[in-house]
Amino acid sequence: MKALVFEKSGLENLKLSDVNQPEIGTHDVLIRVKMTGVNPIDYFVVNFIPVKPIPHIPGAEIYGEVVKVGDHVKDIKIGDRVVVYNRVFDGKCDMCLEGMEMLCRNGGIISVITNGGFSEYFSVPEHNVVKVEDISEEIAASLPVAGLTAYHALNTVQVFNKTVVVFGASGNTGQFAVQLAKMMGGYVIAVTSKNWIKDFGADEVVSYNEVEEKVKKLTDGKMADIVINSVGSSVWDKSLSVLGNNGKLLFFGGITGSNVNLDLGMIYGKHASLVGTTGGNRKELVELARIAKRLRVKTWKVMKLEEGQEALKALFDKNRDGRIFLKIE
């Protein structure tokens, strides 16, 4: 089969290659990959993160059709359209038993500690797949990372009747954070230069330069109850500045950097909570698949598998306006 493979870290080393089609065990399924989302984690996997095995196939966000099932697979059938829950987990540790499979003490991220899905075929245990129906390929390929990350973060707080400020609102996870926060009953202020986010449920759209002034005016000086930082260090100070008393700052991802200066006085003076989140659990991905028909995605580019290098570079294109996908045919 065709796959994007690298043997040494560095985007220049990512090549389209012929590799063996993966084998399946008795509890596994084989997926013909139809589309994958392109995310910052894929860029970091290719360039910086230690991975295994080597040679390595990246690709954390996978959607496709089941073409083969193991002898003990019961709930998944050939022809099912599925997305992949992208965590390796044992189901036995204390984290898994608490429904926190993404924090499994003996697991990790698919595409980091295993091969990923930038390939024509992908094999995975049955318990890692979730069936999807009657949604576009782009929505399906956005659920396992972009959608789930935003959904899980919002599930850690009470959104109903709260003011939610979303930084990076037009990005991969940001556009889903806006939609989901609105569905949960929040008053959503999207921080972006892209006005199309208004059509995704944002009550207000403000620019980075005016965010503090606008949030203060829109909230009668109370500022935000919840702030979502899906961008990283570049908006850390502004994220804290628009957070109101007893507010919660949710953060995940660091496409603009992960190191920040922390003003402890500002945090305890506001009685603020800093909540870091990563991914989500299987139950949340199932829930997300059920409401997926109500979700939208802004697509910028759909590229071919052989254009993987260009797709990862395009994540940092200043003109990027929506998600990037690899369509695998």
From TrEMBL:
Entry's Gene Ontology molecular function annotations: adenyl nucleotide binding; anion binding; oxidoreductase activity
Domain Enoyl reductase (ER): 9-326
Alphabetical UniProt keywords: Carbohydrate metabolism, NADP, Oxidoreductase
InterPro entries: ADH-like_C, ADH-like_N, ER, GroES-like_sf, NAD(P)-bd_dom_sf, Zn_alcohol_dh
CDD domains listed in its UniProt record: Zn_ADH_like2 (cd08264)
One GO process term, biological-process aspect: protein tetramerization
Sequence intervals crossing the membrane: none
Keyword Oxidoreductase among UniProt keywords: yes
Protein name per UniProt: Alcohol dehydrogenase catalytic domain-containing protein
Organism expressing this protein natively: Sulfurisphaera javensis
